[in-house]
Design a protein that fits this description.
With 76 residues, the protein is an all-alpha fold. The chain has two helices and no strands. The two termini are 27 Å apart.
C-alpha cells in the first residue's frame, strides 16, 4: 500500500508536468509539497493498519506463495 502511494504521487507529478506542457487541466494534479507529504503520511498510516490487520489472515497465503517460489532459479 505504501509503495502504491509513492507511485500515485509520482503519477500526480507526471500529470502536473503534462498539464504544464500542454496547457490542459488534469483531474489528478499535484497541489504542492504539503499535499504530497500529507498523502504520504496517510499512506504510511494505512499501510501500518493493513499490515497489522492482515498479518493473521495472510500468513497462510504467504506460506503457500513462498513454497511455490522455493524452487525458482530467480530466488535461489
Amino acid at each position: 500500500m505504501l509503495s502504491f502511494g509513492v507511485f500515485w504521487e509520482i503519477g500526480e507529478f507526471g500529470f502536473d508536468v503534462v498539464a504544464g506542457l500542454t496547457g490542459l487541466e488534469m483531474p489528478l494534479a499535484q497541489h504542492g509539497l504539503d499535499d504530497t507529504m500529507t498523502d504520504i503520511v496517510f499512506n504510511t498510516i494505512g499501510a501500518i493498519v493493513v499490515a497489522r490487520w492482515g498479518l493473521p489472515y495472510l500468513t497462510d497465503v504467504t506460506d503457500v506463495v513462498t513454497d511455490r517460489l522455493d524452487g525458482w532459479p530467480v530466488f535461489d
